[in-house]
Description:
The complex is a heterodimer.
Chain A: E1 10-19, E2 22-32, E3 37-41, H1 48-55, E4 63-68, E5 71-73, H2 78-84, E6 86-89, H3 101-108, H4 117-121, H5 125-144, H6 160-173, E7 178-182, H7 190-207, E8 210-214, H8 218-224, E9 227-232, E10 235-240, H9 242-247, H10 249-256
Parallel strand pairs in A: 3-8, 3-9, 6-7, 7-8
Antiparallel strand pairs in A: 1-2, 1-4, 4-5, 9-10
Helix pairs in contact in A: 3-6, 5-6
Chain B: H1 13-17, H2 23-43, H3 46-72, H4 80-97, H5 103-122, H6 130-150, E1 163-164, E2 169-170, E3 173-174, H7 178-201, H8 203-213, H9 215-220, H10 225-252, E4 254-255, H11 262-275, H12 281-303, H13 311-332, H14 336-350
Antiparallel strand pairs in B: 1-4, 2-3
Helix pairs in contact in B: 3-7, 3-10, 3-11, 3-12, 4-5, 4-6, 4-10, 5-10, 7-10, 8-10, 11-12, 12-14
Pfam families (chain A): ABC_tran (PF00005), BCA_ABC_TP_C (PF12399)
Protein name (chain A): Amino acid/amide ABC transporter ATP-binding protein 1 (HAAT family)
GO molecular function, one term (chain A): ATP binding
Amino acid sequence: MPHTSAQPLLRLNHVSLAFKGVKAISDIGFSVAHGEICALIGPNGAGKSSLLNVINGVYSAQEGSIDFDGTTHRRLRPHQAAELGIARTFQNIALFKSLSLLDNVLTGRNLLRRCHWLTQALGLPQARAEEDAQREAAERVIEFLHLQPWRNSIVGRLPYGLQKRVELARALAAEPRLLLLDEPMAGMNAEEKREMSHFIAETNREWGTTLVLIEHDIGVVMGLSDHVVVLDYGRKIGDGTPDEVRRNPEVIAAYLGTRH
Amino acid sequence: MLYREAGQFSSHYAEDRRIFRLRQDRLGLVFLLVFAFILIPWLGNDYWFSAILIPFLVLSLAGLGLNLLTGYAGQLSLGSAAFMAVGAFATYNFELRLPGLPLLVSFVLGGLVAALVALVFGLPSLRIKGFYLIVSTLAAQFFVPWALTKFSWFSNDSASGVISAPKLEVLGISFDTPAGRYLLTLTVVVALFGLAHNLVRSELGRHWMAVRDMDTAAAVIGIPLFKTKLLAFAISGFFLGIAGALWAFTYLGTVEPQGFDLNRSFQILFIIIIGGLGSILGNFLGAAFMVLFPLLLSNLASLLPQGLIDAGQLEHLQKIIFGALIIIFLIKEPEGLARLWQRLRAQARIWPLRH
Lengths: 260, 355
């Protein structure tokens, strides 16, 4: 996808992260343009999930900074990241498992609410009107991801593949500017993977959401993304279009090994 | 087919959100309210009002208070009785020191003071979870009765810290008879249950359950954890405080700080475990069980030959059976009596078919 404006939506500058002296990420920098799908790939333990956690403030990097939409942040808190418009899904499903699908999607919209909790408890008219509006918005997401039949189901009882999709729905309900997906297709069969990549591509196309995703299935990554960043042992070893990355000798070495 | 829901569709979101979506359920509720407000005061006797119905209602309300905190927001607490004591003594002092203050206003103010105290003891919940949080609320349980006994100002310098009920009068109408005290209690309890029902189905209720189910995900989607937990403590304290005031004034008439000891906190915890965590109806079921079960047991014992079980033994037996029941519930039905009721209803809808 062409870069729509000169300034990227997200830029990481020399980010380093260590856990008690063990380096997880060293000096990583890359940019994500408005409206693109950017894939983070690399072997297990390369630091991909840690990097997502730095972007949305679950971990704070010891060095480096993050530019989001032109503003530089030394460190972010999860709540602050959510307010900036960064939403995410988790590698191990992190849904509110005893709530219905609809309630899960509605919680995703919590920052878009204005009514005080007391007006809601008393059931005042403006609270009821807001509840209707939020429900309508939630229903749009549910329809978009074809989740209508399970609207009132308790999510903990849904099959795994559907739960992954509900997590996408909850993140999308927040109307995020940047959506981080941590292995959205992990543990899925080919059919489910095809369905999920279709939804991800549609999210990007219809909602204009910028996406950063981690995925192991190289076939899926190459077909889906505009931009691929390759990590190995916490360092960046490749950054470019899928074709450029495919030809990068360092990437081939990391994935396939080299002859010594 | 005891239930027929054919043809009942929701065409607006508001209809879909109703507490009872089915016409039969709404009729049932109306019937129940008419029964409780009109038929019972007419048919009941003083024993039923004072020994069964009033404690049942107040314990349901106390269970609701704890259920909001523990069942919905997932924060364990053993300080329920302390917050009840705060509510009772605060209401007493508002009535005593501000003559002419309407009784219901005193109840609300007493509830607010209890909310404030609960909020203070909820402050550690940001840092600690689960069993460690119990210790913090246990501190409230020991500190509050001590402070109420130590500083006699709270009980207007009465010798043993005993306080007695103010005149139970609302809008010039006296509620001092057993039937009157029942009606006053019922009105307050029904109003507060309505409020709680709205609350747990609103955005705040969803935030509580989100924090309970998965707090990291809740933080990442922008739910403020600390505010959500503190509100749970405060609102739970408000409900418990009013329950405490009712316990002291419409049920017992006179009460001392030691009447709100750790045993009472455990009793309320058992109500919500037996009734159902995270259920509104469960509080009524748990409280009914708690009030009726000892009566049932002593009636059964009186059927046995004289002298086989004396009163002391009966009391111990009651504790043993209760303990066993708690264990059975936690293993077999952690969602309590409310879940059993739900299952029964689901079967009634499709009866005589099986699926």
